[in-house]
# Entry
Amino acid sequence: MACELCNRAKGVQTAEEFGYPDVQRQAKAPLKDAAAVNTTRWALYQRLSATGLPMEVGTGGRTKWNRTQRGLPKAHWLDAACVGASTPPLLRTREVHPWQITATGHGNRQLCGTDRYGFPIRHRTRHKRFCSFQTGDLVRAVVTQGKKAGVYWGRVLVRATGSFDIRTSAGRQTGINARYCRALHRNDGYTYRAGASAQQRELEAPTAPVGAPTNEGAPDSSPA
# Structure
């Protein structure tokens, strides 16, 4: 996309002739990735159709139309509820808070920590668990004495010394002894948090189109 002035100045010239050879090279790049996705999805559709089970497919345009007609804001989980022709006329979503899951992994296998230039600055032990805790565990720490006294909860960063750090919503708390910590959820490679409801999304989104049905008082027909 180009602004009106640049588009007029460019005229019939190619991007390379206009002084942007990098853009021209991108235009000539093969679309093998997109072709692979399209081939795979249609092969999957044919395999599923052969089973004889009830199935429904939809398009991005149909999903957007369904969402717009129901006056819902743009969100991935709301799009998932508006896929296909079987979308109910009204969706009760105002009190629904989606559960957002982010893959964080289980750390890495690098035993030698390096600086930004690649020089070794520290050694990592092969052991990941100390005092029954592992980095990434969700913990609650009740510190009863000392200058760190207070209640903290968040993801823990463990050390062999037993002096842990906890990443809380207020920032990183350092020097929390392991004896004050209690595990709430063991690290499984994911983080979990409650997302914004549809009502909160509506406050941030443009006004719904005139005449669109509202979700107020609608029966609960959210998909399982």
Observations:
- The radius of gyration is 26 Å.
- Residues 92 and 220 are 5 Å apart (CA to CA).
- The chain has six helices and eleven strands.
- Helices lie at 4-10, 21-27, 32-50, 60-69, 76-81, 198-204.
